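Example record

One chain of 177 residues, shown exactly as stored in the release files.
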Amino acid sequence: MLTLNSASSDLLVIDFQTRLMPAIHDSDAVISNAFSLIEAARYLNLPLTYTEQNPEKLGHTLTKLAPYPGEVLHKMTFDALRTPKVAGHIDGTNAIVVAGCEAHVCVLQTVLGLIDAGRQVFVVADAVGSRTPQNRRAALERMARHGAEIVTTEMVIFEWLGSAEHPSFRDILKLVK
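Predicted structure tokens for this chain:
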């Protein structure tokens, strides 16, 4: 599939945690884009999964990105798929849309794990962050080399909608304006 379809997509939100985000370069923009993706996924009733890396040390998911109705899965592994509960939760055939932090650690390793497992992965570049722009850029390039589609928040949202006639078009359009 070259474009996303809301009927066959899941959103995976990786490690937007309270103690991690202040260190992320351009974190306000990354959080804002993740918020738009999450809200669009909710409007469209897409499966939504959150991970938290070592929440005792890094805190929980940001309140703004409140993890309802998705399930928060705790992990200690950088590749979320190496945590059996996470791997079992996102098992299936849907395309996986990924937003998260840090691009060069947990996002990268999880995306490579998903690709290795035969999944189609769309990494939302403007909803992915790292402490440094160099790490983010290198991670996005590496993920693309291995088969991840690198997309933007607006690309994902408009592909999920498919048409200006979609019943949720006006509500979801507010997320990108």
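Notes: The mean pLDDT is 93.
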